[in-house]
Amino acid sequence: MVEKPIKQLTTALLVLMLCACAKPDVSLTEATDSVSADAGQRWRVVNYWATWCGPCILEIEELNQLAQDHSDELMVLGVNFDNPLTEAERQAAIAEMNILFPVYPQDPASDLGIKTPLVLPTTFVFAPDGSLVETLIGAQTGESILTVIHGHDSGRQSRLSR
What we know:
alpha/beta
């Protein structure tokens, strides 16, 4: 008899703990409004990933840190290569990957003027003016992405100073 209330209490506590750990919803409005609001102001790093992709799993922590540490100069946006059918599936994949940056609910390739990659992970780096600067294939680090951005910035600045 005592076991049933203990089991119910344990279940209730588990549910409460899981709810407290839930990530905020990253909706289409958030992802597209962020991109529109920052057009011409920040770099965009668009990363294609999948839950079954080992290198994708390894680079997510780097991308989370990059998004957090450099939010003044860039935004990281994710794309689930598997394009889940439901919002619940999309949120489950985001939670499984521990992604802390916005994720598009649908593949934005045509809107961005790119082709959906055939290899994962693939990261597209867009300049503040919206032009595609680099396509990076394979797992990236924050340093590798910043090298692309700062290399492009310094090249543009040196051309301007001539």
